């Protein structure tokens, strides 16, 4: 299968599975426990209908929207996802450059394999840096200072990870960072020569934004879940968030909220946007689908906060449904990672093209020539 034959995100997933060794594919594809929340994130969109308005002039469809104080060309942007080098040697830069080409925002993860300064130098679209409040508060302050110096648009605090979720697929496949070529996995890597040869040519898997710290991966391979667990701080509270909002002093997203009480607390501590998310079904099993949380949160916060739906989006009509429910924008993660694994930057661009085209078509069939018409 070639990229040109990938007509939807599911096709990109199939191609990614062919290209990647099992540990890498299942790291993208898996969720927590029995993966009910993972699958429900997408299935929940099926409960929502779209009402068409006919005989409307839809000769031109305008996808532009305002988010985080700036305009982006699409009503969706690219979520922060960790360790993109696992999927393609061009890493986060391939994703960021695709976002730049399409005029939409890009969010870099703390656990990315590209320095935040290198992303800033490569693209002109709005840049978001996702971070945690680490046990070492000095590292968090360092991130804030670096993002200010590099001209980032917003910070995004992930709030739903006091511990890592129970990602059993990673345990079964022996997922490590960086990858290990042990006897158990050697055959699997040999069956995926495209990825394995790239690994030999481009072996750098450093977590680039924390590699200078002694608790990063300088000591060699370790279990991915063990590493992530070592970074989380179970004592983080709303007071810590208020402190971080003050340190940053600009557009501030909190990612991982789903309840009305938490949304109100986020507003009270100074957040400007919420990424309604259950971490792609990778943290709390049985957490509700993000799309199911939008209407209640919007009713509670009014226009005080921008709302971003993050989770389960595989179709352009999912994006339209989220906007119709009250979201300001959506963010995608797995959808573009499948593209990255399938074909690097070209694969990410294919994912964006698919979702953009589907969104435009859905809007035309609904009789909604602009994003405001969907929300209205």
Characterization of the model:
This protein is α/β, with parallel strands linked by helices and 376 residues long. The strands form three sheets. It has an eight-stranded parallel beta sheet. α1 (9-19) runs antiparallel to α15. The mean pLDDT is 91. α14 links the parallel β11 and β12 (329-332). The protein is globular. It contains 16 helices and twelve strands. The N and C termini lie far apart (41 Å). It has a single domain (3-48, 62-362), classed as Alpha-Beta Barrel (TIM Barrel). Helix content is 44%, strand content 12%. It has helices at 9-19, 22-29, 36-43, 91-102, 116-122, 137-150, 168-173, 183-190, 193-201, 224-231, 238-248, 260-268, 294-301, 316-325, 334-366, 371-375; strands at residues 65-67, 70-72, 76-78, 106-109, 127-131, 154-158, 176-177, 222-223, 252-257, 273-277, 306-310, 329-332.
In short:
This protein is an alpha/beta fold.
Write the layout of secondary structure elements.
Layout: H1 9-19, H2 22-29, H3 36-43, E1 65-67, E2 70-72, E3 76-78, H4 91-102, E4 106-109, H5 116-122, E5 127-131, H6 137-150, E6 154-158, H7 168-173, E7 176-177, H8 183-190, H9 193-201, E8 222-223, H10 224-231, H11 238-248, E9 252-257, H12 260-268, E10 273-277, H13 294-301, E11 306-310, H14 316-325, E12 329-332, H15 334-366, H16 371-375
Parallel strand pairs: 3-12, 4-5, 5-6, 6-9, 9-10, 10-11, 11-12
Antiparallel strand pairs: 1-2, 7-8
Helix pairs in contact: 1-15, 4-15, 12-13, 14-15
């Amino acid at each position: 299968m070639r990229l040109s034959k990938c007509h939807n995100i599911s096709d990109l997933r199939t191609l990614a599975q062919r290209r990647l060794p099992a540990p890498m594919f299942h790291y993208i594809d898996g969720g927590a426990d029995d993966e009910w929340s993972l699958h429900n994130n997408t299935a929940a969109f099926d409960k929502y209908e779209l009402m068409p308005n006919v005989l409307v002039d839809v000769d031109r469809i305008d996808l532009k929207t305002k988010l985080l104080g700036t305009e982006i060309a699409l009503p969706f942007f690219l979520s922060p996802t960790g360790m993109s080098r696992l999927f393609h040697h061009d890493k986060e830069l391939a994703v960021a450059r695709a976002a730049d080409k399409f005029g939409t925002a890009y969010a870099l993860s703390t656990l990315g394999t590209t320095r935040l300064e290198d992303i800033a130098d490569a693209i002109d679209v709005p840049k978001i840096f996702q971070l945690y409040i680490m046990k070492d508060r000095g590292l968090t302050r360092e991130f804030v200072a670096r993002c200010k110096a590099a001209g980032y648009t917003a910070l995004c605090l992930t709030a739903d990870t006091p511990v890592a979720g129970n990602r059993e697929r990673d345990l079964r496949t022996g997922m490590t960072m960086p990858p290990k070529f042990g006897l158990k996995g050697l055959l699997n890597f040999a069956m995926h020569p495209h990825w394995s040869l790239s690994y030999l040519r481009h072996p750098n898997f450093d977590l680039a934004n924390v590699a200078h710290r002694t608790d990063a991966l300088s000591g060699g391979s370790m279990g991915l879940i063990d590493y992530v667990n070592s970074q989380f701080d179970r004592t983080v509270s709303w007071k810590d968030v208020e402190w971080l909002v003050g340190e940053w002093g600009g557009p501030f997203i909190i990612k991982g909220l789903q309840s009305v009480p938490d949304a109100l607390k986020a507003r009270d501590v100074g957040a400007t946007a919420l990424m309604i998310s259950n971490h792609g079904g990778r943290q709390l099993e049985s957490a509700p689908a993000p799309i199911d949380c939008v209407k209640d949160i919007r009713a509670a916060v009014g226009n005080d906060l921008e709302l971003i739906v993050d989770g389960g989006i595989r179709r352009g009509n999912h994006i339209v449904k989220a906007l119709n429910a009250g979201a300001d924008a959506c963010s995608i993660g797995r959808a573009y990672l499948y593209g990255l694994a399938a074909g690097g930057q070209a694969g990410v661009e294919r994912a964006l093209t698919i979702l953009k085209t589907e969104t435009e078509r859905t809007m035309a069939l609904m009789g909604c020539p602009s994003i405001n018409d969907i929300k209205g």
